[in-house]
Specification:
With about 290 residues, the protein is an alpha/beta fold. The chain has a single domain (about 20-280), classed as TIM Barrel. It contains nine helices and 13 strands. It has helices spanning about 35-55, 80-95, 105-110, 125-135, 155-160, 190-195, 205, 225-230, 260-280, and strands spanning about 25-30, 55-60, 95-100, 115-120, 140-145, 170, 175, 180-185, 200, 210, 220, 240-245, 260. Helix 1 packs parallel to helix 2 (about 80-95), helix 4 (about 125-135) crosses helix 5 and helix 8 (about 225-230) packs parallel to helix 9 (about 260-280). The longest helix has 19 residues, at about 260-280. It is globular, with a radius of gyration of 17 Å.
């Protein structure tokens, strides 16, 4: 396919993200890579859509989901095949890629391929993992734990910045509220913005019901647009959406994944809302 270079010039724009005022970028992809063919299919679809709607795309695919609810939950293709697939996505579609890291032993190997390292929410306080990620020099996208206050993310920043790496993105993905439920406190966005880092909203994981299906997580996808729109009017840097060509057959997070068939309408609305928001100044109350 013909590559449009204006969105992803050598994939280097990800390192230049430093605030929340630029047009919204999107982290899109399947929750977990199920196989190479479907991953490439998703990447091609998303690349074409980014050209059509003119947005900056980071392709997301996990080679391992180490925190599945039950032992029998599908975890992914594994690090060797997963990284090979992500590298092929980068070279074929000229799009930056992001993936999760769970162990320090994997950090350098993953950093050799991906453009952004993602720290899962449950691991956001793991000092060794944060420091190892920081030492790679790559942008580090840290999901705020379901147990963390927004103010406490300053300590996460401090751990990574101890390595000299200051390219850090903070991600909201909901807070535990009783059993099998998450809520989003929209005060978290302006609070985390005061920490001086780009803020991303993982809306699809925020509507999860952890362990809600017994042996797997469920979710309420009907709320995705409401939550996404509410976050975008806070003036954030990026939005994270899990997408799948057949969410009903997805092997991970199907109940909260957006169907390819609906994605263009969804993104077009959110892009327009972001542009409107960032063209105005929020009036002060005090």
């Amino acid at each position: 396919m013909k590559v449009n270079m204006k969105n992803n010039v050598s994939q280097g724009w990800v390192s230049d993200i430093s605030g929340n005022q630029e047009p919204l970028f999107f982290i899109l992809g399947p929750c977990v890579m199920e196989n190479e063919a479907d991953t490439m299919r998703a990447a091609e679809f998303l690349k074409k859509l980014s050209e059509k709607l003119n947005f900056k795309l980071i392709f997301k695919g996990s080679f391992d989901k180490a925190n599945r609810t039950a032992l029998q939950g599908f975890r992914g293709t594994g690090i060797t095949q997963g990284l090979a697939t992500l590298e092929r996505v980068k070279k074929t579609f000229d799009v930056p890629v992001i993936t999760d890291i769970h162990e320090t032993v994997h950090v350098n190997e993953v950093a050799d391929v991906v453009d952004v390292l993602q720290i899962p929410a449950f691991l956001c306080r793991q000092t060794d993992l944060l420091v190892a990620a920081g030492k790679t020099g790559k942008p580090v996208h840290v999901k705020k734990g379901q147990f963390e206050t927004p103010e406490s993310m300053q300590h996460v920043i401090g751990k990574i910045e101890s390595t000299g790496n200051r390219t850090i993105w903070l991600c909201e993905r909901g807070y535990s509220f009783g059993y099998n439920n998450l809520v989003v406190d929209y005060r978290n966005f302006p609070i985390m913005k005061t920490l001086g880092k780009p803020v991303v909203f993982d809306v699809t994981h925020s509507v999860q019901r952890p362990g809600g299906l017994g042996c797997a997580s469920g979710g309420d996808s009907a709320f995705i647009m409401n939550l996404a729109a509410s976050a975008i009017v806070q003036g954030i840097a990026g939005l994270f959406l899990m997408v799948h060509h057949e969410p009903g057959k997805a092997r991970c997070c199907g109940p909260v994944s957006v169907d390819f068939n609906r994605l263009e309408t969804v993104l077009n609305y959110l892009i327009e809302l972001d542009a409107w928001t960032k063209s105005r100044t929020l009036p002060a109350i005090q």
